[in-house]
Amino acid sequence: MNKVILITGASSGFGKVIAEKLSKSGNTVYGTSRNPEKYPEPKNYKLLKFDITSFTESKKLVKKIVSENERIDVLINNAGIGFTGPIEEILIKDIKRVFDTNYFGHIDVIQSVLPIMRKNKSGLIINITSIAGYQGIPFGSIYSASKASMEYLGEALNMELNKFRIRVVNIAPGDYKTDIIYNRNDTNLSKNSPYYNVYKECIKEWSLNMSRSRNPIEVANLVEKVIKSKNPKIHYIIGPFLQKISVFLKKILPEKIYQRLLMNSHLYTSDAADE
Q1: Strands 235-238 and 185-186
Q2: In this structure, are residues 7 and 1 in contact, taking their beta carbons and an 8 Å threshold?
Q3: Which one from 147, 176, 195, 268 is the annotated catalytic residue?
Q4: Would you state the pLDDT for residue 211?
Q5: Which of 12, 163, 210, 262 has its CA 20 to 30 A from that of 241?
Q6: CA pair distance 153, 156, nearest whole angstrom
Q7: Dihedral of the CA atoms 243, 87, 35, 111 (nearest 10)?
Q8: What residues contact residue 62 under an 8 Å CB cut-off, 6+ apart?
């Protein structure tokens, strides 16, 4: 039986690849975008206009899909924005914007979908989080915090919704070839900033790593596997080996040693910081 699936943020990146994969498998897929008119119309799924930070549109979105299908079987919370910069120089309004998109907006959609899933006594919610949600990344603190929030939200929801036969799964990807690093939002640092040199080196290294990273179809394949599974896990981590192993190392290494390894991997050395 095909599934009725709602994917937030499906005009590019993971969302687009997941939508294409699931629709080609025979599912009825609805994706969302703030500006769908800027993108070619998808062949196999519907791309609907939806601003996840409006906090007024989610009920209308869900009502439309239910009116056409009588149900929503799967919700994939994928919409998100990247944000980088030293915490000392980030504006509070920018932090709120990141959390509105990466966290609070998803809660709003979840609240609108849950009554339908509870009524049908069935449902699956998949949160696309990030390996960054397992560790504080230098200059990526706000993004890491927003993704960590989604991880814990998913854990709690999975227990809250158990008696309604609704499952919640978190999928945390590492670096994949998406546009998030290039379309990121960041703080405009002055060249006089004490963080300027090391921050620019970090951005350069991140961009290089993204250009060498893996095909996001791997994440789409995992999403499909989770949907088909009768008993999926709560947490999945997917990505380059070194990024996946870093999550394990955090559990077993002394904190200071782990942080030193993480800082070195992001070029955050004392010499660079003092330039």
Answers
A1: unpaired
A2: no
A3: 147
A4: 65
A5: 12
A6: 5
A7: 80
A8: 6, 72, 109, 112, 113, 116
Quick check: is 45 catalytic?
Answer: no
For this structure, is 163 an active site residue? no
Phi, psi for residue 46 in degrees, rounded to 5: -95, 135
User: Quick one: pLDDT at residue 218?
Assistant: 97
Instruction: Tell whether pTM > 0.85.
Output: yes
144-166 per-residue burial string, b: 16 or more CB within 10 A, e: under 16: bbbbbbbbebbeebbeebeeeeb
Check 30, 45, 134, 143 and give the catalytic one.
143
- Which tokens is 107 given? 């809660």
Sorted by where each begins, the domain ranges of the chain are 4-274
Q: How far is CA 143 from CA 26, 27, 101, 135, in A?
A: 34, 31, 11, 11
Question: Residue 181: which residues within 8 A CB-CB, separation 6 or more?
Answer: 82, 206, 207, 210
10-residue stretch averages of pLDDT, the chain, 275 residues long? 95 96 98 95 95 97 98 97 93 96 98 98 98 92 97 98 98 86 72 91 77 87 97 96 90 90 63 36
